[in-house]
Amino acid sequence: MQYNYKAINGTGNSVNGFIEATSPYEAQEKLASQGYIPQKVSPAKSSSFSSLNGVEERLNLMLSTVKTPELILFTKQFRTLFNAGINITNLLQILEEQTENLKLKKAAAAIGQDIQGGISLSEAFVKHPRIFSNLYCSMIQAGEDSGRLGEVLDRLVYLLQHEHKVRSDIKSATRYPKIVLVAMFIAFLFLLTFILPQFIEIFEQAGVALPLPTRINIALYELILGYWPVLVTGSALAFVGLQMYLKTSTGQYHKDWLFLKLPLVGSVFQKGAMARFANIFSILQASGVSVLNTLSVLSGTIGNAAISREFAKIQDQLREGRGISTPLKSAKYFTPMVINMVAVGEESGNLDEMLSEISSHYDDEVDFAVKRMADNLGPVLIALLAVLVGFFAASVFLPMWDLAKTI
Questions:
Q1: Is 345 found in the same domain as 308?
Q2: Which of 40, 127, 245, 347 has CA atoms 20 to 30 A from the CA of 92?
Q3: What is the pLDDT of residues 185-201, one digit of tens each?
Q4: Highest mean pLDDT: which of 12-16, 176-180, 253-257?
Q5: Of the residues 132, 163, 185, which one is the last residue of a structural domain?
Q6: By residue range, what is the domain housing residue 156?
Q7: What is the full DSSP assignment across 51-103?
Q8: Are residues 251 and 316 in the same domain?
Q9: Which PANTHER family has this protein been placed in (predicted)?
Q10: Is residue 405 located within the same domain as residue 351?
Q11: β-pairing verdict for 37-43 and 2-8
């Protein structure tokens, strides 16, 4: 049953809200365990209007999503309020009032209640994995444990902003190629199913020997015409099966491994992983987190399953007493620059500073790689379009040329 309550929180402010309980006594006990002093507890009204409002609120909560810009704004506000010296409980109440996104608003309220109940800030964030990623929670924990939460929030905001910019740049760079590829596919199907059959009838009546490009297109036309239900069903099942496979650890590994090997885009993913590796490593090292624990965090936050597997091998070698630079040399995907600069930082005792230099360098490298990918995709698409148009034109004009010679 739901109860409406009025209570005094830990800072002496009056708050109102709803709580689930089996009795008014249990509701008061729950409020007291969360650090509230209950003043009034009464059963929530169950009128049809309030019920409809409750259904609408739950529906909005279920359908709403937290977009990256909203999360960045939330984190910026968190950082600003924290650096202003506002205590966490009041800070979260302010965030709850200021945040427009319903899920973030509910999360801020829940985190505030959990903290008043006695758990740590990072533990409260971990309870909302659909909003706050493993990386986000790990960074909060590192800042909390080291007493440098303000600095960590600064770096977290930068990391979220830069990665959002990179993702946006990649989407912008690939938007035009996607449109062109879809248009090419539709145009080819149209030519194959509506234009080519008219020429086939002319060629067959004239008894012209058909060249290879024409025979290939005719075979494709007959395949589509005769087996389109099978092709559509098979394609749909293959798509669903592929999506299910990619959700497995093996499928994720193979997908990420393939992306690293692809021309044009492979360097973007590798450099992006190096930038994230150096960013997270430098933050956690500066916060006093051990190298082994840092690698455990990186294994779940690097964003690439193929590279993530390498961290397990690196950890095994670290447990044998080796430094971080030696295992990196035998690991896949790490660039020579990362390996050498980590070795220098390890020897000089300035590993966190050297990692900051690496992250700054690769942040710029990622931006450059994305621009280069966008510049190179245009000529590749033009070449692909030329091959497709040339192949179809050859399948039509070669037999027409032979037909003209017989007249």
A1: yes
A2: 40
A3: 888 888 888 888 888 87
A4: 253-257
A5: 132
A6: 134-407
A7: HHHHHHHHHHHHH----HHHHHHHHHHHHHHHHTT--HHHHHHHHHHH--SHH
A8: yes
A9: GENERAL SECRETION PATHWAY PROTEIN (PTHR30012), TYPE II SECRETION SYSTEM PROTEIN F-RELATED (PTHR30012:SF0)
A10: yes
A11: antiparallel
- Name the one residue in this structure whose structure tokens are 């390996």: 339
Digit-coded pLDDT (tens) for 361-406: 998 998 898 888 888 888 888 888 888 888 888 888 888 887 777 6
Q: Tell me the C-alpha distance between 329 and 349, whole Å.
A: 19
| Helix residue ranges, H only, 247-335 | 249-261, 266-286, 291-301, 305-319, 325-330
**Contact criterion met (CB below 8 Å) for 221 and 196:** yes
380 and 272, same domain (yes or no) = yes
> Would you state the structure tokens that stand for residue 16, as one six-digit string?
């109102």
For residue 129, what are its two tokens?
A: 């994995």
> Domain of 31: which CATH number?
3.10.20
Cα 374 to Cα 175, 350, 371, 377: the distances in Å are 10, 37, 5, 5
Domain end, chosen from 132, 151, 185, is at 132
What is the maximal distance between C-alpha atoms in the chain? 102
- Radius of gyration (Cα) for the chain, nearest Å? 30
Per the CB < 8 A criterion, the answer to whether 191 and 214 are in contact is: no
Mean pLDDT score across all residues of the chain = 84
Average pLDDT, integer, range 62-84: 87
Residue 8 forms beta bridges with which residues? 14, 37
Number of domains in the chain: 3
